[in-house]
Each structure stands twice: as structure tokens, then as C-alpha cells.
Design brief:
It contains three helices and 13 strands, in the order E-E-E-E-E-E-H-H-E-E-E-E-E-H-E-E. With 196 residues, it is an alpha+beta fold. The chain has one domain: Inosine monophosphate cyclohydrolase-like (Glutamine Phosphoribosylpyrophosphate, subunit 1, domain 1).
Length: 196
């Protein structure tokens, strides 16, 4: 089944996977506290605004570290609002609503999640017919297609590396790359999986 890009989040970990039929020549790169999706060196040139973006950011907030991740340019305003002290629910809902679903041929939903250093996790999506933001206490998935409302998923991981590899290996079609994040005693650790 093809469900497109998706996020999985639980109280202590999260993952984001790029799945794509149209733009498979992408990878995730790391710099500082940010993971970025972008074209590989051999990718065809495109002016599609949805191909490159920061997909995961760890930010310092007034109450501690929080991570924001998702499938597009909305990750940056979510992270920026968190840094300013917005509650995670408001940062997610406000940013998703402001940027709205992607105006492409498929009305692709925007999806995102946050995890705070106290273990509070939220997941959200904005579609052409709804804005949903929910607190989660078990592994929960939301995708751009087919599974575009949050739902529980069997997804147990112990580190950022396993979160990224588990997301990449899920039995959904057209895996391209994945990001993982996990809460540790020393803050959040990040990992990426760009396939073989």
C-alpha cells in the first residue's frame, strides 16, 4: 500500500519517512540540531516547492528541549513558535492552519508531530477537509494518503537509529529515506536512514 510520507510518534521517540513515487532521488542530511530533506546529487532539477525542507528540528524552549518534525516547510514555524514559548498544541495547530494543505495535484495533507523533554507527544495533520491535533500516549501514525488521520501502530524502538530504520523498513511502498529521534537522559538524539 502506498501511503506517501508519514510520521510516527510516541512519548519517547518519533520518526518521519519520505515515501515518493514522483521524487525518489532525495536524501536526508544532518547539520547541528536539524535534519533536512533534499535532492541527491543525481536528482533531476525541479522547481517543486515541496521537495526540499527541514523535516526535523530540536529546539530549546522556555521549559526545555522539544523536537518538531513533519513533511514540509511547516516544521520551521512550528519549531520557531516552540522556541518562543507557545504550547506545542498551539504551535502545531497554528502553523498547520496557516500553511494549510499542499496546493498540489493531490491536495496533499501536511503532517507533523512534537515531543517535549517531559514526554508529552502530539501529532497533527491539516487536510483539505480537516485540521486534527491530538495528544498521544502510544505509538501513533499519520500519513499523507490512505492513513491521513492519526491511528495507533505497533512501533517499538529504543533509539533514534532504530526509529529511523524501523520507519524506513515498514511495509509501505516507495521508501526513500527516514529520520528518527529519541528522548534520552541527555536530551534528544537524531538519526537518519538513506537506504542502501
Amino acid at each position: 500500500m502506498y501511503i506517501g510520507r508519514f510520521v510516527v510518534v510516541g512519548p519517547d521517540f518519533g520518526a518521519y519517512r519520505v515515501s515518493s513515487r514522483s521524487f525518489p532521488n532525495r536524501e536526508i542530511t544532518a547539520r547541528d540540531e536539524v535534519l533536512t530533506v533534499g535532492p541527491t546529487d543525481d536528482a533531476p532539477t525541479t522547481d517543486n516547492p515541496y521537495v526540499s525542507y527541514n523535516c526535523l528540528r530540536v529546539v530549546e524552549t522556555p521549559t526545555g528541549e522539544t523536537v518538531a518534525f513533519g513533511n514540509g516547510s511547516h516544521v520551521d514555524p512550528i519549531a520557531e513558535k516552540l522556541q518562543l514559548g507557545y504550547p506545542a498544541r498551539d504551535a502545531l495547530a497554528g502553523s498547520l492552519l496557516a500553511l494549510d494543505y499542499e496546493k498540489d495535484d493531490y491536495d496533499t495533507p501536511r503532517i507533523a508531530a512534537t515531543i517535549s523533554d517531559d514526554g508529552r507527544a502530539l501529532i497533527g495533520t491539516v487536510r483539505n477537509d480537516a485540521l486534527l491535533v491530538e495528544t498521544v500516549d502510544e505509538p501513533t501514525l499519520v500519513a499523507t494518503y490512505e492513513k491521513n488521520a492519526p491511528e495507533a501502530i505497533d512501533f517499538e524502538v529504543g533509539s533514534a537509529d532504530t526509529a529511523a530504520s524501523e520507519a524506513y523498513g515498514l511495509e509501505f511502498e516507495h521508501a526513500v529515506c527516514a529520520a528518527g529521534v529519541a528522548r534520552t537522559d541527555d536530551g534528544f538524539e537524531m538519526a537518519l536512514e538513506n537506504g542502501a
